[in-house]
Write a structure and sequence with these properties.
CATH architecture of chain A: Orthogonal Bundle
Number of helices of chain A: 6
CATH superfamily of chain A: Winged helix-like DNA-binding domain superfamily/Winged helix DNA-binding domain
Order of helices and strands of chain A: HHEHHEEHH
Strand order of the largest sheet of chain A: 1-3-2
CATH class of chain A: Mainly Alpha
Mean pLDDT of chain A: 91
Helix content of chain A: 55-70%
Radius of gyration of chain A: 19 Å
Oligomer: homodimer
CATH topology of chain A: Arc Repressor Mutant, subunit A
Low-confidence stretches of chain A: 140-147
Largest interface: A-B, 51 and 51 residues
Structural class of chain A: mainly alpha
Shape of chain A: elongated
Distance between the termini of chain A: 33 Å
Largest sheet of chain A: 3 strands, antiparallel
Number of domains of chain A: 1
Chain lengths: ~150, ~150
DNA sequence: TATTGTTATACTCTATAACTATA
DNA sequence: TATAGTTATAGAGTATAACAATA
C-alpha cells in the first residue's frame, strides 16, 4: 500500500475507534441520566471555579444559544445552579451543586476510561502517545471550531 | 503520568483529531452539495454493483427509514436512481448515475485525504498504523453498531 | 452601542412505529 | 405471515436571528 493509502487507512481506523468510544460513553452517560452533550457540558464546569454561560459555550466550541437548553437540563436535574453575577447582572454564573460534583466525577471516570487501549504494552502506549501528540500538535492550523 | 492517565490522554487526542477530520470533510462535502451522511451513503454505493436500499442501511449501520431521505436527496441531485428490481418488486435497487460516479470519486478523494498525518515520517506512519491496527483488531467486542 | 442570556426557528441525523405493496 | 420501502413522528445536536436586560 502506498503512503496515501496507508495514511487514509489509519485515519479511517482512528475514526472507527473514536466512534466506538463515543458509543460506549453515550450509554454510560445515559445511565447517569445525561445526554452526551450535557455530560460534556457538566465535565467542562469546574466546581471550584464557576463560569458564566458564555465561557462554557466557548469551551464547548458551540453557540451560546445551545448552552441554555443544556444548562436547563442540568439545572432541572439539580446538578447545576444559575446565579446572576452581582458584578455584571447580564452574566449568569454556572455553579455545580453537591449532587453535580458526584455526577461530574462519574462523567470524568467514564471519559478517562481507556479499556480501548488495554491491549497495548506500556512501551507501545508510550509510542502511540508520542505519535498522536506529534500529529495533534503540528497537524492542523485549526484543530476544531468554526472556520 | 500513570498508565491510565496516559491512555485517557491518547483517547482524548484521537477523538480531537477525528473530530477535526470530520469537520474538514463536512465542509468539503458541503462544497459538493452533500451533507456528511449523504456523502457517506454515496460512498458506500459501488457504481458497478448496485444495491437494494436495505443493504445500504446495513452498510451505514442505520435504520432503513433513514435511507429513504438520504437517497431522496441523492436522487434529486441526479447522482443516484431508484430502480424497482424485476425479480422482487418490493426491492428498489440503487444505481449510481454518470454524474454520481464523478461526485463519488470526489467523495472518495476527500475521505482518503490524510493531510492530517503529513507531519509523520514514513517510518512513524508505519508504526502508527501497526499500533492502531493492534488496537482496532483486539480492542473491543463490538467496534460499532447497536448493542 | 455592545454584550449576556434567552427565545424562536430551522436543519441534520437518527430511531421507532405504522403503513403499502409485494412475496 | 414476513419483508422492502415509505411515511409520520420524535428527540438530540447545532446554527442563525431577533429580543430583553444590562453595561
Amino acid at each position: 500500500m502506498d503512503r496515501d493509502g496507508l495514511a487514509a487507512d489509519v485515519v479511517r481506523r482512528m475514526a472507527h475507534l473514536t466512534a466506538s468510544v463515543r458509543h460506549r460513553q453515550g450509554t454510560a452517560f445515559a445511565e447517569l441520566g445525561l445526554t452526551p452533550a450535557a455530560a460534556r457540558a457538566l465535565h467542562e464546569l469546574d466546581p471550584d471555579h464557576p463560569l458564566p454561560a458564555r465561557d462554557l459555550a466557548d469551551r464547548l466550541s458551540c453557540d451560546r444559544s445551545n448552552v441554555t437548553a443544556l444548562v436547563d437540563r442540568l439545572e432541572q436535574a439539580g446538578l447545576v445552579e444559575r446565579r446572576t453575577d452581582p458584578a455584571d447582572r447580564r452574566q449568569k454564573t454556572l455553579v455545580v451543586t453537591g449532587d453535580g460534583r458526584a455526577v461530574r466525577d462519574r462523567v470524568a471516570e467514564v471519559m478517562s476510561d481507556s479499556r480501548l487501549l488495554a491491549g497495548l504494552t506500556d512501551e507501545e502506549l508510550g509510542t502511540l502517545r508520542d505519535l498522536v501528540w506529534k500529529v495533534s500538535d503540528g497537524g492542523l492550523p485549526e484543530p476544531c471550531g468554526p472556520e
